[in-house]
Design brief:
The chain is α/β, with parallel strands linked by helices. Helices cover 36% and strands 18% of the residues. α3 (68-78) links the parallel β5 and β6 (85-88).
Length: 130
């Protein structure tokens, strides 16, 4: 099956027509902070053990934060469906930049990777990590 990259406008049209479902491959902490309404969370690390069953004729649209992870995992994940697989170009960032709806939860903990970056920055600033 083919893997095709689409932009946020095209994805929004397919979703509104009921022709596609968003499969968010980010981690749960990222999803809790911000996600596209209706997206199904299936972290790339768990997607094989927790497959998403789609209705006949519905195409999966894989997405992550910026498109990097979907680029790395798209072929492995696309094997989960007997149909063409779509990839959201630019991920959540491009979706939001295009003015599409995003659910934000500022009360959710910062993403683990962001916490690590902050801790490393503090250590560098205090001279403990060189």
């Amino acid at each position: 099956m083919a893997i095709t990259t689409i932009d946020a406008r095209q994805a929004h049209q397919l979703l509104n027509q009921g022709l596609a479902r968003l499969i968010d491959i980010r981690e749960p902490d990222e999803f809790a902070r911000a996600h596209i309404p209706g997206a199904i969370l299936r972290p790339a690390s768990a997607a094989i053990t927790e497959p998403v069953v789609l209705e006949d004729g519905v195409l999966p649209i894989l997405m992550c934060a910026s498109g990097m992870r979907t680029g790395l995992h798209q072929e492995r994940l696309a094997r989960r469906w007997p149909v063409d697989t779509l990839v959201l170009k630019g991920g959540l960032k491009a979706w939001e930049a295009a003015g599409q709806p995003v659910v934000h939860n500022a009360r959710a903990p910062l993403e683990l990777m962001r916490q690590v970056q902050i801790a490393a920055g503090v250590l560098i600033l205090t001279g403990l990590l060189l």
